[in-house]
Amino acid sequence: MSTKKQIVLETKNLDIGYCTKKGLHCLAENLNITAQKKKLICLLGKNGIGKSTLLKTLSKTLHPLKGDVFVDAVNLKKASPQFLAKKMGLVFTEKIPEGQLTVFELVALGRQPYTNWLGKLSPLDLQKVNAALEQVHIISIRDKKYDELSDGQLQKVMIARALAQDTEIIVLDEPTAHLDIHHTIEVFKLLQKLVETTNKTIIISTHEINLALKLADEFWLLLENEFISGDLNELIAINAFEKLFPKKQILFDAASKQFHIQP
Amino acid sequence: MKASQTQIGTFGLLLFFFLLVFFTNLSLGSISIPLEKIFKILFLENTDKESWNYIVLNYRLPKAFTAILVGSGLGASGLLMQTLFRNPLAGPFVLGISAGASLGVALLILGTSFLGAFLGEVSLTNWSLIGAASTGSFFVLFAVLIAIKRIKNTMSILIIGLMFGSISAAVINVLSYFSTAEKLQQFIFWSFGSLGNLNWTEVFVFGIVVSSCFLVLLKAIKPLNSLLLGENYAISMGVDIKKTRYLVLICTSLLTGVITAFSGPIAFVGLAVPHLSKLIFTTSNHRVLLPASALVGAMLLLLCDTIAQLPGSEYSLPINAITSIFGAPIVIWLLIRKKDSRSL
């Protein structure tokens, strides 16, 4: 029973996909996923397999085709936007529109679920915003306009905004898509550290597969016809990583726990 | 999100210029009245010239208040539309609301030649014009609201609004084609826009509508700030997008409709003022920009009105011409400037 308490996110018989003019397009069926507290979870899968769709369904940006998603044991179908805003912070892949907000103002937007009707920041809100800036190490750029930032800095700002939202779960869709290897490692290490220091559950989808293998606590593999989850050793034991890519090009090496490109 | 010290300073400076323009506006016109006399008249002290008293209290003061209401209302509506549609060229006129108001007035002035048979001759008082313009703009507003009920994409709403504007403009064209020169002239004079036609009762009613819209719009500041990051982020922060959209659309349409009804279709202020405010305050925070746009709008329209009176001469130019002569170069300048700065 004690482990059950730790589950922050759960799906039951979930079908994900989207509607087109031709009808429903189902990407994955019958997903039963659980996410536990204080885990860095990496969602892996090929392009187009439905990673973004799954993350959007978990965060109620998309509706499930069938089945249910539970956040903190509350069914998302019945959850209000305000409730969800206090439970789950999001970082999307898409770039944000141009604007003239400062880094501080942008991160402070994360406090919106808690502020009054005019969005006035209380001392507690200010404290949370400053803590988020500090955790992500962006205090020095707090008064810069976000338009002036590099992609790496901007991604950290968006993570800080999600942190300021003070949620148990943070979901990031390909947070390192536009970043070089140095910033990619920095973001991964940052997320890993945040899981340790804040007890949050962080779910990310990524193509940085070798880095994910080194740093994540748990993996969700979205494959053609199945969904496999577990920690690194569990998945190696059942040869799950081999199913991720065609063997002709890239091969998983269980000894080094890394993928290698086939010569 | 709080206004910073410099922003408060800028507000102070703007307020000073606003008062300066306000009193200049009162003092200049076909007859120039010295500022000290203006103050005396405003404090209801006796001045030697009864005619000055009359001009200031019954003509220039209501006109200045109308300019303030029109300018602040259009400036604020433009800002909200630009954020909602994430389009720097959106303005209070894009939804076709003021085209609807024009259609209402066109039907009243031009349409009486065919509809005269059932309506009888309607007299063209201020109130009948206001009534016709309001009816026209509400008709378009409801048509737009019904059309967008099932639409999720905000961009499509913009296009639907533009289409309604085109339809109204086309109907006006047809009406103009069939009407007499005299009626046409009446309609064209209305479409020039005018700030000086209102008496105190009308200004009072106008003021109540505009300020109640502003009160409701205060509620949109917070969701609009999160909309700066895009709709997905806004939703993830608990914003009810549909509610916000209706709140903003209904309030701005009401403002635009009423403004067009009371003063004619005044162009460009709604488009140019938000950009000016963003340039002055270099922020996107609506807590700063909403009052800033209202203040800058009021100031700009007072200034335009002062110029339109051609101080010292007995002629005055149509206000709509002046706002466009001012507004268009600003928009052009902004678009050229946009090349080197990404920050609009």
Description:
- The complex is a heterodimer of chains A (263) and B (344).
- With 263 residues, chain A is an alpha/beta fold.
- In chain A, 30% of the residues lie in helices and 27% in strands.
- Chain A contains eight helices and 13 strands.
- In chain A, α3 (103-109) runs parallel beside α5 (151-164).
- The longest helix of chain A is centred in the C-terminal third of the chain and has 18 residues, at 181-198.
- By secondary structure, chain B is mainly alpha-helical.
- Chain B has a single domain, classed as ABC transporter involved in vitamin B12 uptake, BtuC, CATH 1.10.3470.10.
- Chain B has 15 helices and no strands.
- Chain B is globular.
- In chain B, 47% of the residues are buried.
- The mean pLDDT of chain B is 84.
- The A-B interface holds A 59, 61, 80-82, 84-86, 88-90, 92, 94, 96-102, 105-106, 108-110, 112-113, 115, 117-121, 145, 147, 165 and B 1-2, 86, 218-219, 221-222, 225-226, 228-230, 232-233, 235-240, 278, 282-285, 287, 342-344.
Can you describe this structure in just a few lines?
The complex is a heterodimer of chains A (263) and B (344). Chain A is built from eight helices and 13 strands.
Fraction of residues in helix of chain A? 25-40%
Total number of strands of chain A = 13
CATH class membership of chain B: Mainly Alpha
- The stretches of 5 or more residues of chain B where confidence is low (pLDDT under 50) are none
CATH class of chain A: Alpha Beta
Which descriptors would you attach to this protein?
heterodimer, A: about 260 residues, Rossmann fold, 6-stranded mixed sheet, 5-stranded antiparallel sheet, 8 helices, B: about 350 residues, mainly alpha, ABC transporter involved in vitamin B12 uptake, BtuC
Topology:
The complex is a heterodimer of chains A (263) and B (344).
Chain A: E1 7-20, E2 23-31, E3 34-36, E4 40-44, H1 51-58, E5 66-71, E6 74-75, H2 81-87, E7 88-91, H3 103-109, H4 123-135, H5 151-164, E8 169-173, H6 181-198, E9 201-205, H7 209-215, E10 218-222, E11 227-230, H8 232-237, E12 250-253, E13 258-261
Parallel strand pairs in A: 4-9, 4-10, 7-8, 8-9
Antiparallel strand pairs in A: 1-2, 1-3, 1-5, 5-6, 10-11, 12-13
Helix pairs in contact in A: 3-5, 4-5
Chain B: H1 5-27, H2 35-42, H3 50-84, H4 97-109, H5 112-119, H6 126-148, H7 154-177, H8 181-191, H9 200-217, H10 221-227, H11 231-236, H12 241-263, H13 269-281, H14 286-308, H15 319-337
Helix pairs in contact in B: 1-3, 1-14, 3-9, 3-12, 3-13, 3-14, 4-6, 4-7, 4-8, 4-12, 6-7, 6-12, 9-12, 13-14, 13-15, 14-15
